Amino acid sequence: MPNPQEILLLVQAIDQPGVAEMLRAKLKDPATGQAIIDALLANKSRIAPKRIESLIADSVDQLLQGNAEDLKRGVGLSAAFGLKKTADRLHKIALDSPDNALRIAALDALGAQQNANPVALSALLGKYQELSLATLRALANSRVKDAETVTIAGLPEVPAQFRAQVIEILSSHKSGASALVAASLAQKLKPDDLGAIALNRLQTVLGNDPELGKLLDQLGDKFRPVLQLNGKNNALIPTNITLKGAFTIEAWVKLNPGIDQNDSLGGSPGLLDINFFGETPRIYGGSSLGDVIIAKKKITADLWTHVAVTRDASGACKIYLNGELDNVGSKPIPHDIPDFQIGWSTTNQGTHGQFAEYRIWSRERSGDEIRAHFDRSIPAGESALLFNGTNDQGWGKTTPAAALVRTLDLPPVMSEEEAKAFDEKYQHYLALAKSPGDPVAGQALSALCTSCHLIGSSGGTMGPNLSSVGSMGPEAIIRNILTPNAAIEPGYRIFRVTLKDGSLLDAFFVSEDKNAVVVRQMGASDRRIERKDIASTQFLRQSLMPEGLIDALSDQQRKDLLSYLMSLK
Hints:
Blueprint: H1 4-12, H2 19-28, H3 33-42, H4 49-63, H5 68-81, H6 87-96, H7 100-113, H8 118-121, H9 129-141, H10 147-154, H11 160-170, H12 174-185, H13 196-206, H14 210-218, E1 224-230, E2 237-243, E3 247-255, E4 264-268, E5 272-275, E6 282-284, E7 291-294, E8 305-311, E9 317-321, E10 324-328, E11 337-342, E12 352-361, H15 367-373, E13 385-389, E14 402-407, H16 416-433, H17 439-445, H18 447-450, E15 454-455, E16 458-459, H19 474-482, E17 493-499, E18 504-512, E19 516-520, E20 527-530, E21 534-543, H20 555-566
Helix pairs in contact: 1-3, 2-3, 3-5, 4-5, 5-7, 6-7, 7-9, 9-10, 9-11, 10-12, 12-13, 12-14, 16-19, 17-20
């Protein structure tokens, strides 16, 4: 009997003479068939579905008429390899099986195949929460006529914290995206139902669709200006500011691929250049000083990153990334810096990318100040604030080379109103965290976390391990729950795959080879996507963790959940 690795090699050589016949015979043999099926499931992310569809179709059909274990394997194979011919049997399992876990697995398989039937499955909505959610996920993925309409109508059947999952699936393909826009314009959805991820997908999938344009006009607060620099040597904005003594320069930066010394936060000829040589923020003090400080961490192209540089009264400099101190300078910059220019670099080219929330201060901001305010707007008139480019205000004279453009891909910055609301919510949640809760009840609620995070030996691997999260303290736990997009660990950003049919897949990146990319979505097994079906891929500056995760819980439930999380040390 071949072992799983040998079976994988045989599948990969299935076009060779006699291989398919041998595997088909072993699948039919009761002594070996089960082992073959288990090996296929174990290697599903390494096998191209079309290579084995004809091989396993008959075996899967038999499994879907068998006992409980056969059904489980048959559903797993149907989901793993997109066997659309199994749709009728999967619908029957979803509708009639007494095993609710198997019903949900069948629905997930139909979702993976994109062929869930809205007429048949609408009967499952309102049965119970988990089944309703699985049904809506399957229908949201479906390309069957009217599936998107039934999905939107069924959203009230699941709690608010789960609706975002369904809406984000709908927004990833054209029929679902168009239905969401129509429902929003007809006020069948609330403006808050469309989060940043869904809106970003709508814009990507629908492009210049006029109906989407109407919706974006209504959602102006989510579609705001940033400064775009085109990479030419005139892609800059003069400030007429002379930096004397202590200062702070900070901004959200998103640079195009190919980051190098041509890209710069700004500077002054011969005296200062805050550039990104080798994708790494550095402060260059002119030819007389050379490099004054080089950051320890690189920044990533097409990803919003907050960069702050400070100089104290003695000329000593520091670099902060995403609110945290990265490095301290090796030598001071003692001289004044006249006529500072945003985006200016020493080279003959220029910065290619976008800036937002650009601030210049006439004092050194402390590490605590930078950490506390890097993700929120600063009102005009703040003491020592010399320059404050925010949204479409404060930038001075722009040009075609350095122009304001509206976008949905914004850094995670809160307005004054949002910051006030956030602070109130934060203080409320912090008070709950410091109140007695029931960690046993909280453990039951931690399913909200373990769908993506590992706690002990249970849970997913799409987010950081939470087994010792309690050591962070309640303040950090609550801030990470409330603002998952503020400072994302690089390995847990959304990986977007744009397919050639125009649809999107936002997921966790698992692996890739020359033939395919493997991704993982919440609550689903790894999915293999053939490169021939992929138009493009990119990482987004958005966490896989949704915002508002515990908003729909009661205060007692929040206390219990936070009590459980803080017990993990």
